[in-house]
Amino acid sequence: MSYIPSVVVSNEQVSENYYILKVRTLRKLVKKPLPPQFSMVWIPGVDLVPLSYADCSNRLVTFFYKVVGEGTKNLSLRKPGDIIAISEPVGKFFTDIENPVFLVGGTSIAPIIHYSKYLENFSGVWGVKSGALAESLIEKFPKLKHLSIVSEDCTIGFCGKLTDHLDKLRLSSNTTVLTAGPPEMVKAVCRWIKNLGVRSYVIAETIVKCGLGVCGSCVINNSLLCRDGPVVDCSVFW
Ligand SMILES: Cc1cc2nc3c(=O)[nH]c(=O)nc-3n(C[C@H](O)[C@H](O)[C@H](O)COP(=O)(O)OP(=O)(O)OC[C@H]3O[C@@H](n4cnc5c(N)ncnc54)[C@H](O)[C@@H]3O)c2cc1C
Ligand code: FES
């Protein structure tokens, strides 16, 4: 896999453990990233971390990430001018979507930010723990206003978890649902959708190590997420 050295332009803490990282690649990516493709982000001396492209415009690439462990903690300490490296896009893009409805939890909003650049019309729900995160992200990416918000701290939108409000959704038969988020949320959404007769997919996450289709760490339902995903049919989670 080809890695492109990239200079950190900004690495802004947007809320609690959430950051928006912008890097400028030192050369153009060979392949244009399209949603929901991801990059293997190399943090020198630390780790490789898979992160969804949230935007890519010329040589300026944006990621939205949450600090969860050593790799992302270290990434959050990188300052403007520091060098990291990012891979060419990994996985398959999935952009031919009729009437998209996104049902998304937490950090999984990253690929939806990327989708929002390409889709004129979309709707859906974004579930967050804290309303402050949704507010700061909507300010930076105004097209996220197309989504209804459900917050666990009840400070914005509906109160509770996304899965508490599924019954309020009215999906027409020509809708395509894409869901992404923590495994319990994704399972609950896919089970709920099962009998509604609409196309439904998951932007899946697994443990991705090589990103090359070699190590097998990302196997999901007999296919490899890094090669065949990250979009898989919802039926995988029934
Ligand atoms: C295709 C893909 C796209 C992703 N896009 C984003 C993104 O845009 N923004 C973002 O914040 N995160 C994203 N992630 C998750 C991110 O890659 C992990 O949070 C990161 O690798 C954790 O690395 P770490 O060294 O900080 O933590 P580690 O020390 O490696 O892990 C900390 C904890 O998180 C668990 N964990 C690590 N990776 C995953 C995973 N993939 N799924 C579930 N649990 C995991 C570990 O088991 C451990 O319990 C994505 C993951 C995948 C596979
Ligand atoms: S991450 Fe190694 S095969 Fe997919």
Features:
single chain, 238 residues, alpha/beta, Elongation Factor Tu (Ef-tu), domain 3, Rossmann fold, 2 domains, seven-stranded antiparallel sheet, seven-stranded mixed sheet, 5 helices, 16 strands, binds flavin-adenine dinucleotide, binds FE2/S2 (inorganic) cluster
Nutshell version of this structure?
By secondary structure, the chain is an alpha/beta fold. The chain is built from 5 helices and 16 strands.
Q: What summary fits the major beta sheet?
A: 7 strands, antiparallel
| Poorly predicted tracts of residues | none
Provide the number of structural domains.
Answer: 2
CATH-assigned fold name of the largest domain: Rossmann fold
The named CATH superfamily of the largest domain? Nucleotide-binding domain of ferredoxin-NADP reductase (FNR) module
What is the SS-derived class? alpha/beta
* Strand order in space, largest sheet: 4-3-7-1-2-6-5
Distance between the termini: 34 Å
What's the total helix number?
Answer: 5
Question: What does the overall shape look like?
Answer: globular
Percent in helix: 10-25%
Bound molecules: flavin-adenine dinucleotide, FE2/S2 (inorganic) cluster
Give a count of the beta strands, DSSP E runs of length 2 or more: 16
Q: What gyration radius follows from the Cα positions, in whole Å?
A: 17 Å
Average predicted confidence as pLDDT: 94
CATH architecture of the largest domain: 3-Layer(aba) Sandwich
N-to-C series of helices and strands:
EEEEEEHEEHEHEEEHEEEHE
CATH classification, class level of the largest domain? Alpha Beta
